[in-house]
Amino acid sequence: MSIEALASVSGIDTKQGLTNCMDDEDLYMSIIGMYVEQLAENLPQLAQAHSKQDWIEIGKLAHSIKGASASIGAFEIQAISAVIEKAAKHDEISVITDNFESFTSLLDTTSTALKQTL
Fold first, then answer.
1. What's in the keyword line of the UniProt record (predicted)?
2. What is the pLDDT of residue 1?
3. Topology of 3-117 in CATH?
4. What is the pLDDT along the chain (118 residues), one digit of tens a residue?
5. Most C-beta atoms within 10 A of its C-beta, which of 26, 29, 43, 77?
């Protein structure tokens, strides 16, 4: 994968991601690979937690995704993760349910696009 290919992925600010990695392209690409692996694990976990209405687990997963997304420059995912996490902390179930489909769809779309650049 190249930084140029990664820059074509919608929603990824590669400039910020590289800055977060002290402009170390190898480190950044390694983190991108780990991020894709994390999303592959998190998406089914989110679906299972949602089906069980386990809002606390959804909040924990959103927290993890939020931090990882910030590190790679995926700010849209970071923002919606923060909304989901906050809603879970405050028992705002309607906020979670209203945003859940767009959240998981964005995760899936981004993960798929990133995989294609690996």
1. Phosphoprotein, Two-component regulatory system
2. 62
3. Four Helix Bundle (Hemerythrin (Met), subunit A) (1.20.120)
4. 688 888 889 999 999 999 999 999 999 999 999 999 999 999 999 999 999 999 999 999 999 999 999 999 999 999 999 999 999 999 999 999 999 999 999 999 999 999 988 8
5. 77
- Cα separation of 118 and 99, whole Å? 29
Distance CA 13, CA 29 (A): 13
Q: Which residues contact 57 (CB under 8 A, 6 or more apart)?
A: 45, 49
Burial of 61 from C-beta contacts in 10 A (0-12 / 13-18 / 19+): buried
Domain locations along the chain: 3-117
CA–CA distances in Å: residue 10 to residues 28, 42, 66, 87? 17, 20, 17, 26
Q: What is the dihedral of CA 29, 33, 34, 40, to 10 degrees?
A: 150
**Residue 9 gets which letter from DSSP?**
S
